[in-house]
Amino acid sequence: MNDQTVSRALFNEVMVPNYNPQPIVPVRGKGSRLWDQDGREFIDVTGGIAVNVLGHCHPALTEALKSQADKLWHLSNVFTNEPALNLARKLTEMTFAERVFFCNSGAEANEAAFKLARKYAFDHYGEEKNEIISFRQSFHGRTLFTVSVGGQEKYREGFEPVPRGITHAEFNNLDSLKSLISDKTCAVVMEPIQGEGGVIPADPEFVKGVRELCDQYNALLVFDEVQTGVGRVGKLYAYMDTPVVPDVLTTAKSLGGGFPIGAMLTTTRIAKSFGMGSHGSTYGGNPLGCAVAGAVIDEVSRPELLEGVAQKRALFEEGLEQINAKYQIFREIRGKGLLIGAELVEKWHGKAGEFLAAARDEGVLILVAGPKVLRMAPALNIPDEDIGAALQRLDAAMEKKLSGS
User: Fold this and answer.
1) Is 225 annotated as ligand-binding?
2) Which of 266, 275, 337, 341 has the fewest beta carbons under 10 Å from its own?
3) Which domain range does residue 215 map to?
4) Longest CA–CA separation in the chain, Å
5) Which of 119, 129, 235, 253 is catalytic?
6) What are the pLDDT digits (tens) for 317-328?
7) 224 is known to lie in a ligand binding site
């Protein structure tokens, strides 16, 4: 390195190459707008991959962080702290849960959930009841355990041997699950909407059938709500919009609104299997993270914000349908609330990243969910005018991309 310039090129010199970030470097954000080093403005409908649930630099969140920063940063789990206790109380009052474990990410929350499921089965049924069933195309994190439970082989390749006792059923296919579940199954793990797998919602009857099978075989039902939680679908958690209640729920991403925090929620009966010393996290329950997350929950749980999710989704759907009417580019538009997936027609399968780049060039930031699905997970409070502008820019990107210009 010959100079002190901070640019995208510096990434290639100093960072491990497991990411390939976009060529722009954002330096400032406000609401659903971002600005890069050159001052160029972008409309952000990525939401930091469903994280910036209230946009960038929301005043209630920045105030919570600044206020807590002047009081207490870190204690470790040798002590508890007021922000953690207040947040846990809110989560238990607003959900099925009676007990909360705090950590730093969705992967850590899932790691805790999977360990708890095995420990609970061991405590109540013996060591033979240890098998976990997940679903193909699911995603649950990048630790060795969570990537093994996840149903995408590409993320496990090169890291074998992986933990045993894990099988994968076909999503939305109850017969597939029936063929795998047994008295040895300790847990069935599912996303209410498969996010990284292509934004695929679980059918209500499928969810109901999974719950019934778990009850029949004394297996815990674990809902991975890392991406669907904290208002994303118009309910505080997506399970509230299904016919079932899970035994364990994991949450992260939007929980901190951009500040790293994760949590595992469960009942008193199940939580007893995580006795003293059985699991832990040095940073889990950090006062800064919990103070911000507490403010997130207060803001997101306001009825007017949650009720507005459906209206904003309708605007996205209408705009995407109009784009599709012009270019016949989407095979299907799916998802729920403000987790939106637009699957490309077969001609463009494998090339979703090209549309992401084209959109960026027009000043709108979108995501992909695999190589054939464009994904949007904007802030729940994204202004209607920003939705309209984002769709106009996406339209312009489609026109240029498809015309070859």
Assistant:
1) yes
2) 275
3) 72-300
4) 65
5) 253
6) 999 999 999 999
7) yes
How buried is 301 (Cβ within 10 angstroms: 0-12 exposed, 13-18 middle, 19+ buried)?
middle
Angle of helix 352-361 relative to helix 384-403, nearest 10 degrees?
120
- Is 92 inside a domain boundary? yes
What is the gyration radius of the CA atoms in the chain, in angstroms? 21
Determine the Cα–Cα distance for residues 399 and 365; give it in Å rounded to an integer: 16
Q: Is 101 a catalytic residue?
A: no
What does the mean pLDDT of the chain come to? 96
Residue 80 lies in a domain: yes
Active site residue 203: no
The annotation status of 281 as a binding-site residue, yes or no, is yes
Is 361 one of the annotated binding-site residues?
no
Residue 328 lies in a domain: yes
Q: Encode pLDDT of 23-62 as tens digits.
A: 999 999 999 999 999 999 999 999 999 999 999 999 999 9
Residues 366 and 287 in one domain: no
Q: Decide: helix, strand or coil at residue 84.
A: helix
**Catalytic option among 44, 224, 386, 395:** 224
Binding site annotation covers 226? yes
Q: Provide the number of structural domains found in the chain.
A: 2
* Domain's final residue, options 254, 281, 300: 300
The proportion of the chain whose per-residue pLDDT surpasses 70, expressed as a percent, equals 99
Which pLDDT score, from 0 to 100, does residue 80 have?
A: 95
Please give the pLDDT value at position 404: 75
6 is in an annotated binding site: no
Q: CATH number, domain at 195? A: 3.40.640.10
- Is residue 221 helix, strand or coil? strand
The answer, yes or no, to whether residue 186 has pLDDT greater than 70, is: yes
CATH of the domain at 308: 3.90.1150.10
Q: Does a structural domain hold residue 3?
A: no
Select which of 101, 102, 139, 330 is catalytic: 139
Q: Give the DSSP letter of residue 356.
A: H
Domain closes at, from 300, 324, 357 = 300
